[in-house]
Amino acid sequence: MREARKRAGKIWSLAKQLDLSASDLQQLTNAYTTQNWKDSQPSHLLFVPNPVIAWDLIDSLEKQLKQKQLTTLAQDLSSVAKL
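Structure (tokenized):
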């Protein structure tokens, strides 16, 4: 159960940084229901996604976060260059 809580924490931490909801996670994975994803939050972990689906989602969210960070950095550099 510790590993499941760790995966859930990672998923929801990334989702929060990307401003994603349980509905967004359902659409990204096309797995489970929105309610299942809500129930997978580590604070009350009532639902545990399959580890393979969870790790695939984590990989996808990490890639999205890196892309978001690169985009923000590029915009910041562009703003600085205009000064």
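The chain is about 75% helix and 0% strand. Helices lie at 2-17, 22-29, 34-39, 51-81.
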